[in-house]
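Render this sequence as a predicted structure.
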Amino acid sequence: MKIFAGLLLGTLLLWGIETFVPAASIEVNGTAKDMVLRGDKLVIGTDRGHIEVFDAKRFTRMEMIAIPNVKDFMGDEIPARVLSTDLFEGRYLLLSDSGKGGYSDLYIFENGKLEKLLNADDKKALIKARFVDKDHILLGYLSDEVSLFDIRVKKEKYRTQLSESKFSDFQLNEDRTQAVFACESGVLSLVDVQTGKFLKHLEGLNVDNVYKVDFKNGTVSAAGQDRRGAIYDVSTGKGSYIKGDFLIYATALSPSARKVAFAMDEQNNISVYNTFSKVKTAYLKGQKSTLNVIIFADENRLFSASDDNTVLVWDLEK
C-alpha cells in the first residue's frame, strides 16, 4: 500500500511539471556575460566590448554602448570583455577586463558621454559592480572584498574583507540596503551596503563554490558547484537545498520569492520550483550553452543568458 501511495504521489508530481520552450529570443553581438533588467530595459554586457540595451517587452534593440579596445599579452588590440553592467536613472555602468595584470576598468555612460572611473593603474581586480544609487557603486573584488565607490570623488568609502576565499557573485536586495556575497567556500556573507559591516553568515547548505546568488523578499538562493540549489531564509539563517544532476551555474528568485529557478542538469535546462514545498513546477528546455544569468521579470516571465549570443525569453503562462 505504501509503495502504491508513493508511486501515485510521484505521478501526481510529474503531472504538475510543465515543459516550456522559449517564447522568444534576443540576438546580441557577442557572448552575453552579464544581464540586468531595469524597468522595461534589458541591459546585456558582452565579451565584444559593449553593452546592448533592449526593450524588454518588444525585444527590439534600443541602444549599443561601446568601450575602447584593450591589448592582449601579445600587444594586439582586442575587444574588452564586459564583466558586469547596470543601469540607474539613465546612467549606465560597465565593468570590464583592462587586459593588464588581471585588473579592471570601470566606466559610466550618461547623456552620450563615456567616463572612465577606474583603470589598470588603480590595480583593482574587480569581478562585479552594481549601482546602489546614482552616485554610489557596490564593488565585488576577486579577493572576496566588498567596497562602496563614490562616483563624485572617485574614491571608496570603505573596503571590507569578507573571507579568505575567492569571490564568486553578489546580489543586492530590493532596496539596496543589504547584499549577499558568495565565494568558493560555499559560505554566504550578508553585509550592510552603506557601512560594509558584516551582518551574518548563511552557511551549512553548500559545501563548495557558489557560482551565483539571488536575494528577493528576505530569501536567498544559491547555485552550487556541489550540485546543490540552496534556499535560505535570511531572518533565521536557516534553509534547505534541492539536489541537482550537475554543477548548478545559475539561479533566480521571482519577485515574491515564491518561485526559484536553477540550472539543474548538464543539458543547461532550467528547473523552476515552488520555493517552500521544493516541488518542481516547470521545466525550461532550449538553452544551448552554460548559463550565466537567469532573471525573473515577474512571477511568470524569465530571461536567461548563456555562453553564446542568444538570450532566451520564457513565459510560464503559455
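Summary. Helices lie at 2-15. The longest strand covers residues 126-133.
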